[in-house]
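Batch manifest, entry 17 of 40.
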Amino acid sequence: MRFALVALLLTLPLHAADARKALAVELFTLLDVKNQAIYAWPEGEVRNRMVAKLDPVTLAEEVYVPLILDRFSEKELRELIAFYKTRVGQKSAALMPHLFDPSALMASPYVMRIGREVSEELEREKDGSDPVNRARVCSTCASSRRA
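Output type: structure tokens
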């Protein structure tokens, strides 16, 4: 009897892991990730052939399920699945890829400009030609001398 109980307890984590994996696969399916994965490719023959060749099971098992399992608890997976089964969740899943692609393109010039500004700022600080940084350093030196 005791041996059977220990064997049952040892298999519980495996069953829990299987349950979480099943939930991750269900979420992957609800989100229609196979189709979302190819949105980055321009429409045309290459994209059509990719859709035909992509194996959703391989895509799920090798890429998305491990990522999902790494980031969500079983409780969170259940909540996400419940949401994506609703009308709003289904609409959200269908629209998200179409929202992120254009927004990334629209944000790119802004992000690039900020990146250039920060790079230039760091370069000026490094060579000492940044008047703002020089003033900051001088005020720090002055306050440390007073102390």
